[in-house]
Amino acid sequence: MEVQSQSRTPVAPEQAKTMKKQLSDKERLEKGQVLSRVILEIAGAPKEHVDKSIKLIVDYVAASEKFTVVAEETFEAEKKDENEGLFSAFSELELWFSDVNSLLGFAFDYMPASIEILQPDALRMQTYQVSSILNELLNRLHKIDLQLKVTNAENQLINKNAALIVRNFLVSLLKEKSMSLDEMTTRVGIPKEHLEVFVKPLQERGILTTEAGVYRLAR
């Protein structure tokens, strides 16, 4: 698969807010900064939306005062899966981070596909720096865990309410007349194998009865 590159451009000082002060690589390393190569990737559809989204993210990163973008190369979206119709686009950036904490924050905020530290060759950190990184990591993980729990609770509530709506609809239909599962599927608009999930509990609770494949309300 041939991937077309949209750009490979060192970011000019006047084009990036991050480059308020020009420093040599040596000066940056002396200040404890970290040079990394990161790959940002987006998947979705349609292709035009994916191309636009990856460009917006790259522009946002380049304009941020938290990082200094040295160079970036963005590739056009390509078909990711013929069956699903998804497109994937990615961008490769080289950035200077003020320190390891800044790099960690970037990793959590942008969720890059990969990160490679280019400079320095070795990282020397004090114990308080390691503690700070671990605490930041734990804080982010706790937030993610809380969000997952909230989302899970909301999904359970939505599923419960959706099940009640479907069951009430089935009872309402069968008040009109007795129906086969195929007839109910046509009226409700839910695939037969999924509708059976709602019909079975109604049978077990004695709300519905069936005879020769025809369902009716229990008297």
Mean pLDDT: 85
What percentage of residues falls in helices of 4 or more residues? 40-55%
Main sheet properties: 6 strands, antiparallel
CATH overall fold name of the largest domain: Alpha-Beta Plaits
Note poorly predicted spans.
1-5, 7-20
How many structural domains can be distinguished in the coordinates?
A: 2
Our Rg estimate from Cα atoms comes to 28 Å
Please give the alpha-carbon distance between the first and last residues.
65 Å
Strand content: 25-35%
Number of helices: 6
Number of beta-strand segments: 9
Please tell me the CATH architecture of the largest domain by its name.
Answer: 2-Layer Sandwich
The gross shape turns out to be elongated
What order do the SSEs take from the amino end to the carboxyl end, as H and E? EHEHEEEHEHEHHEE
Top CATH class of the largest domain:
Alpha Beta
Estimated structural class: alpha+beta
Describe the structure.
There is one protein chain. 48% of the residues lie in helices and 26% in strands. The strands form 2 sheets. Strands 1, 2, 3, 4, 5 and 6 form a 6-stranded antiparallel sheet that branches. Strands 7-9-8 form a 3-stranded antiparallel sheet. It is α+β, with helices and mostly antiparallel strands. It contains 6 helices and 9 strands; from the N terminus they run E-H-E-H-E-E-E-H-E-H-E-H-H-E-E. The chain has 2 domains: 5-124, 2-Layer Sandwich (Alpha-Beta Plaits); 145-217, Arc Repressor Mutant, subunit A (Orthogonal Bundle). The protein has helices spanning 25-30, 47-63, 100-110, 127-176, 181-188, 192-204; strands at 5-10, 34-44, 67-75, 78-81, 86-97, 114-119, 179-180, 208-211, 214-217. Mean pLDDT is 85; it is low at 1-5 and 7-20.
